[in-house]
Amino acid sequence: RVVRDGRQQSLDATRLVPGDLVTVEIGGRIPADLRIVHAVDLKVDESPLTGESESVPKSAEMVEAKTPLAEQHSMAWMGTTVTNGRANGIVVGTGMVTEFGRIAELTQSVGAEATPLQKKLAVLGTWLGVIAVAISVLVALSGWLLGQDLEEMFFTGVSLAVAVVPEGLPAVVTITLALGIRRMVGRKALLRRLQAAETLGAATVICTDKTGTLTQNEMTVRRVWVPAGVVEVTGVGYAPDTGTVELDDGSLAQRELSDLLTTGLWCNHARIEQDESGWHSVGEPTEAALITAAHKAGVSADVEPSGEFSFNSRRKRMTVLERTDHTYIAHTKGAPEVLLPLCTQLGWGDGAVPLDDAVRHQITSVSETFAGEGLRTLALARRRLPLETRLDEDEVEQELALLGVVAILDPPRPEVAAAMAEARTAGIQVVMITGDAAATALAIADRVGLGAARAVSGVELTDLSDAELRAALDEGAVFARTTPEHKLRIVKLLQSDGNVVGMTGDGVNDAPALKQADIGISMGLRGTDVAKGASDMILTDDNFASIIGAVGEGRRQYDNIQKVIRYLLSSNAGEVIAVFVNILLNAPLILLPVQILWMNLVTDGLTALALGVEPAEEGIME
Predict the structure, then answer these.
(1) Does the pLDDT at position 440 exceed 80?
(2) Is 386 helix (H, G, I), strand (E, B) or coil?
């Protein structure tokens, strides 16, 4: 929706030009790079571009010139999605001049690398060629000098050359890899290149994204602190019927939790929907998590706001007014450190008590504990106001009653911890590279068993030398707030040290590193088309555990190809010896070239194919 000639009109996004004034609102996609000029409660999901799992609040306020991409709150980037609010923005970049376009150019600059199998077969082919020519020339000349017929010695030399080269090898290797593709599909891995499985089997390092790969990319309320204690919430994702709130019915905690979740429903612009792929959120993911938690607790509310003071980067809170017959009730939601100074009591109704310093310290301690576990915290509060109250934010948002603190998490996939352990057993180093915050990355790394010692931010990474970056990789650091250039640099550095690198990703920002890696692995469910196009393998279930399962299949294929090569070379060695001894005995030519070809292609080829489909050996992942 564009304002041109003083009126609003709808245009195809490809017709936008710099200088157009574009209107965006909740649920819409940003059609070009925009400089925000006016925003009302605007939040944008930038995960395809930056890897940031939480929606980013936007405003028209200026930022410093060298502000990192993920923190440029006055910009909205093409291809990202509005999760809350609305805004007007001026187009400052279209097509290849956008951030998406810059990443596309970076991706195109990366050339295709030969796989480990291709490199080794190329070396083998070179040596076999040299040996074949050397033996054939040596034998032919020796025989001719010893008085043998020149034509017969020529045919003998050709026979020896043919005997040295395993002509059936290309066919057998191709068929083995092709049959392996079908087995890979059973492991939730769809291959876009024939050699991808073997390359994955040879991987020594896997660089993995966090959001959607190690985690489920579904914000979930895990714990709720109310004055009566901590309430645990089970289940993950937005499905309201796959979890419970663990407390006793009729207890004080039940009433306090009901008050808190009711306020969560009022301070909310999101909704949850179900389609053929399951439940998903529409709008701000953290607000959708509150709706899901309310369903699990059996809490509902008919929300008809009488007014609202919207969230922005300055206020960092949101208030919605509910009008009753005699009063207003102000429902407020925000960060604990923002809301706590505005509260004067704890609890709602008859059980409310004054909020003294000891209680404030306890609430701060609870919030810090949740944050240290990688949980995002939100505080919720209320206030009752007379109908004649002047409705401005300074008047309303004071003397609030704190209801509690909600802890929200993008939960790790349950299979990932076991997959991490198997990767260690297999001798594979796992490196987390994410666009998310450092504290969140460290917390998730700890939960999945990655055991990271520290987090290196994108700003720090820019200043690190190659030697310092190697040291950080060796000590198991995770990398947070990274850009496409950072990911590409890490992959190249690992490759320069002789590693075979696998790289996972789902966003546009992952595409250059996916293409540079020896094996690029994109997500089938949440992956962008750009990421899929740059990858060699697509995970149909977006699960890191499926990668480790596919590694085992890749190793089986590599082992079997080695068996095939050993078998064919040993068979060919027998042919060479037979022909050579035949010459020493001065007997007629024992095998014609066409007969050797028949044995190599048909007789040996079919037998070798049986070796190519053998099951995996024990201990293949050790």
Answers:
(1) no
(2) strand
